Amino acid sequence: MSDKPTPLSGFPELLPEHRAVERAVIASLSRTFELHGFANIETRAVEPLERLSKGGEVDKEIYVLRRLQAEDSAGDSGLALHFDLTVPFARYVLEHAGKLEFPFRRFQIQPAWRGERPQEGRYRQFTQADIDIVGRDTLGFHHDVEVVRVMAEALAALPLPGLSIQVNNRKLIQGFYRGLGIPDVTAAIRQIDKLDKQEPDAVVALLVSEARASEEQARRCVEMATLRTDDTAHLRAYVEGLGVEDDLLATGLDELAAVVDGCAGVAGERVRVEANLRIARGLDYYTGTVLEIFLDGYERLKSIGGGGRYDALASDGRTTYPGVGVSFGVSRTVVPLLADGALAAGRKVPSLVLVALADEESRPASDAVARALRARGIATEVAASPQRFGKQIRYAERRDIPYVWFPGADGGDHQVKDIRSGDQSAANPHRWTPAEETQK
Amino acid sequence: MSDKPTPLSGFPELLPEHRAVERAVIASLSRTFELHGFANIETRAVEPLERLSKGGEVDKEIYVLRRLQAEDSAGDSGLALHFDLTVPFARYVLEHAGKLEFPFRRFQIQPAWRGERPQEGRYRQFTQADIDIVGRDTLGFHHDVEVVRVMAEALAALPLPGLSIQVNNRKLIQGFYRGLGIPDVTAAIRQIDKLDKQEPDAVVALLVSEARASEEQARRCVEMATLRTDDTAHLRAYVEGLGVEDDLLATGLDELAAVVDGCAGVAGERVRVEANLRIARGLDYYTGTVLEIFLDGYERLKSIGGGGRYDALASDGRTTYPGVGVSFGVSRTVVPLLADGALAAGRKVPSLVLVALADEESRPASDAVARALRARGIATEVAASPQRFGKQIRYAERRDIPYVWFPGADGGDHQVKDIRSGDQSAANPHRWTPAEETQK
Predict the structure, then answer these.
(1) Are the Cβ atoms of B62 and A67 closer than 8 angstroms?
(2) CB B67 within 8 A of CB A63
(3) What is the torsional sign of CA A79, A85, A90, A95?
(4) B417 or A57, greater pLDDT
(5) What is the distance, to the nearest Å, from the Cα of residue B215 to the centroid of all Cα atoms in its chain?
(6) Nearest to A86 by CA among A416, A366, A389, A307
(7) Residues B200-217 pLDDT 10s
(8) In this predicted complex, what is the ipTM?
(9) Which residue of B has its CA nearest to A266?
(10) Whether B386 contacts B358, CB under 8 Å
């Protein structure tokens, strides 16, 4: 290969020092999910196309696989890359239901692919971290509280700016619209979801034209959608003050208040869980809790995650599997924050120690030092070539390796130098330990 | 989705208790690689098709991406899924060379895709773990020893049966063939590589017909290829005893002996590094060390890994990047060994404790116990519903959760039960710690 490659738009790739940050994020998320009893699974990258295209809305963004030089003329494999982790998970649950224990808690951290036009935070390949709890036939409401709480804790453990998990409830919206007498509730939900991009007056007009609402009904829908609070007493007073009576509305309000109250204080100051009555999530399958996640100061990225309750995540005709889950956009968050320095780069290599090399003949002695350090869990590499020691120290500096080790010649003392402070002292490879702050 | 999905041939998926084993394997490999200073990178799943199809040999196995309902009639994106991690890594090195430090040590653990016919150990999607060291312009031979040693250590840390890393050297083969006077050395290497599948006499015939060797030359090539030993004194005596003089042969013999001697004893009894003069690896780009990895008792899987030295992993026309690396087939090894029980399944969930639930009203009390345990790193879940305690214990049993916690009612003592032994005792959620063998 003799040509210089150029980056592919929409397929971000990280340098080692940035990938180290992404890996630490993934490891931290995994740790929190496992602390809460979520098991990891990995699904294959492909699904039969007909399974992916059932939703309808994302058809244009699907990458279909074709075998190069396949025997049949079309070459289509009938397979396509998944565009999220929910469709493959629903299929996994159906396929393996007989071997899973329900309620089934799982987390999944994998790439997904969409052929859409790339922009900041929106990529053609992107890694997501999803948690879901799935029941067989039934799934208690308390799991809605649980998944939001777990994701709030997981995000609070990351080195991110503040963020908010903004929660709403489809029953509340549907009950309110029904109580108001809106003719086409589903169309209304689709329109209200546009309040993040359009002016209130424009959404009122859409509600009138698309959901056959009266101007008055439309104004009250938009009015309701303006509330955002983490005070559930205020939430109840506000919604009840709107003067619409409906059983579904009352249930949705109780559920929404339970999620917000159930998450109060679990994740510290930086991660806020609040009610936002504007959140609707246009897709049809949500049936109760809905939520989106926004990063403070990065509103331009839109939501960096979302989720909710679906009473029929999957069904094989006889059994229905209700689920509730939250998805966090790892690439969508990490890549832009690394790019603008809001996330600090990690070290370029995992090594804590570079063992210097006096000459090629003493490589076995330097190797032995490295072996002794590694045996105690200290990541170590040996200099590639016996350059002058000043050059070897610069070699370590360029890689962010904090210590350089000079093996003692002819049984003499070993020396170890902290190249950040310049301190150098005698050390024994079987006992020396790096200062705490450099260990991870 | 109301239909019951069927598995896709060649796309193995693991149940949670099996995925736990695969994850532990990946974590262990990563730990060893990092101890040796290898930095992790992840490349995108796709490459421009023309970059993947340069090699020529694997054209038929490539999955090309087409955007469903793209505007242009063909819809081809010009992109295809990578079929290994070497081609993307070579491209990554070229693309980011200005921002990398050389020699650059990296490890990469990702899936790759091939459209080939599935069979045991050969999948259409499979995860590989690769380590490589890449230099700019030059790369010392000692790195050949290093990568083999690191992979030997990494494999020795896995719960696998015994295995052998079988090493040879292209210079030794080429030098021997040249010294013998074989007209087409490259063709001869391709034929000798077939000794794993064909009888010696058939390979002799192929060497005569394809590499224009004489019958006598062909027999000596096959004779050389029969040696397999970890005794480098024997190796030297055997090769020198074949009576062929050639500088390249002498260099190759020195290098091969250095790799085998350099790995002696580093990885214990279970991982053997030995010379096998039959190993050739048909692909053209190897220029020195070549190796394949075989699992004892699983010869039917063929090699579970391989690698070697390539003096031009990548080149941008001005600069050449030599490399040496080893690839280990994670899926190829883990999936068959899990299937036949040679690798024991892990636990179905990460939880060590199930907190029982007396009634729905006491969920906050059970949640508080779970929070206290998690705060000390103990993975915990709360029972999904307040069934009879006998049912809750069976719920834990079915998930392989070893402990069930009974919160004390009205300030009374908490009790924790080890459901494997049946032992039950009073415990404080802020101090209790599970027995050591259940912690990981």
Answers:
(1) yes
(2) yes
(3) positive
(4) B417
(5) 39
(6) A307
(7) 999 999 999 999 999 999
(8) 0.95
(9) B371
(10) yes
pTM: 0.95
B50 CB burial (10 A radius; 0-12, 13-18, 19+): exposed
Instruction: Decide if B99 contacts A345 (C-beta within 8 A).
Output: no
The dihedral through the CA atoms of A267, A269, A271, A275 has a sign that is: positive
- Higher pLDDT pick, A409 / B159: B159
Give the pair of three-digit tokens for residue A188: 């209304």
Residues near A398 by beta carbon (within 8 Å), at least 6 away in sequence: A348, B101
The CA distance from A203 to A198, in Å, is 7
Q: In 3D, which of B125, B228, B221 has the Cα closest to residue B181?
A: B221
Amino acid in the structure at residue B21: V
In angstroms, the separation between the Cα of residue A258 and the nearest Cα of chain B is 12
Phi, psi of A33, deg, nearest 5: -60, -40
Check A46 against B11: CB less than 8 A apart: yes
Distance from CA of A400 to the nearest CA of B (A): 11
The whole-angstrom distance between B175's CA and the closest CA on chain A is: 26
Q: For B384, which of A140, A384, A398 is closest by C-beta distance?
A: A140
Residue A440 has pLDDT above 50, yes or no: no
Helix (H, G, I), strand (E, B) or coil at A213: coil
CA geometry: angle B15, B19, B23, nearest 5 deg: 175
Q: Do A115 and B36 touch (CB under 8 A)?
A: no
Query: Does pLDDT of B429 surpass 80?
Result: yes
Residues 6+ apart with CB under 8 A from A105: A36, A37, A38, A39, A131, A132, A133, B349, B381
Q: How far apart are the C-alpha atoms of B144 and B258, rounded to whole Å?
A: 9
For A436, residues 6+ apart whose C-beta sits below 8 A from its C-beta are none
Identify the helix (H) or strand (E) that includes residue A394: helix A389-398
